[in-house]
Design goal:
The chain is of the alpha+beta class and 94 residues long. The protein contains four helices and two strands; from the N terminus they run αααββα. A hairpin with a 2-residue loop joins β1 and β2. The longest helix is centred in the middle third of the chain and has 16 residues.
């Protein structure tokens, strides 16, 4: 119950992250969906080669290129965990 005695959604009290205004759990869910639908489904194509893996290089998945007539008009690379391309930034470039 909320402080006024009414029912509240506790999820709305979780602070948002960054300018994209998403909560950590929402970002983690997006990352998990991408991992299951893209990363694991295409692991053989996306994984580092054997030499890189043995050297301790891990695959960093994440990025968003937008190409028009073989020219990149937008490029975003994943800076770390729970990061996603900002859709508004993409639309500004289009």
């Amino acid at each position: 119950m909320g402080t006024d005695g009414g029912i509240t959604n506790k999820f709305t009290e979780v602070p948002v992250v960054g300018s994209w205004q998403r909560r950590p759990l929402e970002l983690a869910t997006l990352r998990l969906q991408s991992m299951m639908g893209i990363s694991l489904a295409n692991w053989n194509d996306l994984a580092s080669d054997k030499d890189a893996l043995e050297a301790g290089v891990l695959t960093q998945l994440g990025g968003c290129p937008v190409v028009d007539n073989d020219q990149a008009v937008f490029e975003w690379k994943d800076p770390g965990i729970c990061a996603v391309a900002n859709f508004e930034d993409i639309m500004k470039k289009l």
